Amino acid sequence: MHDRMLTARTLPDLRAATAMLRHRHAHLSLVPTMGALHAGHTTLVTTARNTGGAVAASIFVNPLQFNANEDLSRYPRDEAGDLAKLEAAGCHLVWMPDVTTMYPPTGATTITPLGPALGWEGDARPGHFAGVATVCCKLFGQVRPDRAYFGEKDWQQLQVVTRMVADLALPLDIIGVETVREPDGLAMSSRNRFLTEAERTLAPALPTIMRRVVQALGGVGMASPVLAAARDELTQLGFDVDYLAVVDGPSLVAVDTGGAGRRLIAAARLGSVRLLDNMAC
Q1: How buried is 187 (Cβ within 10 angstroms: 0-12 exposed, 13-18 middle, 19+ buried)?
Q2: In this structure, is the dihedral angle defined by the CA atoms of residues 260, 261, 267 and 273, taken in order, positive or negative?
Q3: 190-280 classified as CATH 3.30.1300.10
Q4: pLDDT digit string, tens, across residues 217-255
Q5: Coil, helix or strand for 126?
Q6: At a CB cut-off of 8 Å and minimum separation 6, what does 238 contact?
């Protein structure tokens, strides 16, 4: 059993807490979150814990990730529930800055990522990855972790952050952790709670059809006809498909065959909820 979980809401408190943890542990890991935690998030914490070091998690609903068409106020928040889940998962420290701490009025610098940030979610949510890259860079500077853990469910985000850390020579390792799924195969997401009962029943069709695409590709053959048939099937079921594509995993550049390092990525809307998923193919 580790010591009681610490919380920090100011930079001086954060620096004192991380200094103490670094003194006691071989290394420090960070799990960045926007709260509304589920088993996918706590899996990141337990994965980091298993390395033997201290684990910090951040909870910050980042306004820079939301564009004019997205409702920041609608993003689910449950601070008490989140803190209880993090403590149960063995988290050592939770960093909970307010917006002014993260983005002081005098601030004049943001990060605009290219490369893997282009296309897909970058097209669907203009400015989103600039917000992700900027807040992650700030979190890395504030917490100074040796490693940071991200879920593979947001595959493009993981590649954007990995590329940024490499390009800016930031002194930490980015670790991707396999997508955590519900028993019926649906990728866990904080937004799943907004699905109606009927939509929740239908939602697992997305990963089911994606698995069939992966099997059909089998590492060989042209992806285009398989993807077209899968998009049609999803549309007939009631999904509004933004994209279903095979890409090179690290670069997110579209390709037309499966194979080593390739990824099947998908975004499809059910009612008010936009579902994201991806699988190795």
Answers
A1: buried
A2: positive
A3: yes
A4: 985 678 999 999 999 999 999 999 999 999 999 999 999
A5: coil
A6: 202, 270
Give the DSSP letter of residue 90. Answer: T
**Which residues, listed in sequence order, are joined to residue 82 by a DSSP beta bridge?**
none
Instruction: For tokens 């949510």, name the residue.
Output: 125
Distance (Å, whole) CA 2 – CA 270: 42
- The H-assigned helical ranges of 144-255 are 155-167, 197-202, 205-217, 224-237
Taking each helix axis from N to C end, the angle separating 224-237 and 205-217, rounded to the nearest 10 degrees, works out to: 160
| Domain ranges for the chain | 6-177, 190-280
Phi-psi region of 164 (alpha: psi -120 to 50; beta: other; left: phi over 0): alpha
pLDDT at 219: 57
Question: Whole-angstrom Cα distance, residue 192 to residue 201?
Answer: 11
The end-to-end CA distance of the chain, in Å, is: 40
Q: Which CATH number describes the domain made up of 6-177?
A: 3.40.50.620
- What is the identity of the amino acid at 240? D
- CB distance 254 to 264 below 8 Å: no
Cα dihedral 134, 138, 139, 144 sign: positive
Q: Average of pLDDT values for 142-170?
A: 98
Told to judge if 38 belongs to the known catalytic residues of this protein, a careful annotator would answer no
User: What distance in Å separates the CA atoms of residue 24 and residue 145, rounded to the nearest whole number?
Assistant: 14
CA-to-CA distance for 127 and 129, rounded, in angstroms?
A: 6
For the residues of 137-148, what is the DSSP string, one character each? HHHHHHH--SEE
Residue of 2, 27, 38, 41 with catalytic role: 41
- Strands 173-177 vs 240-248: parallel, antiparallel or unpaired: unpaired
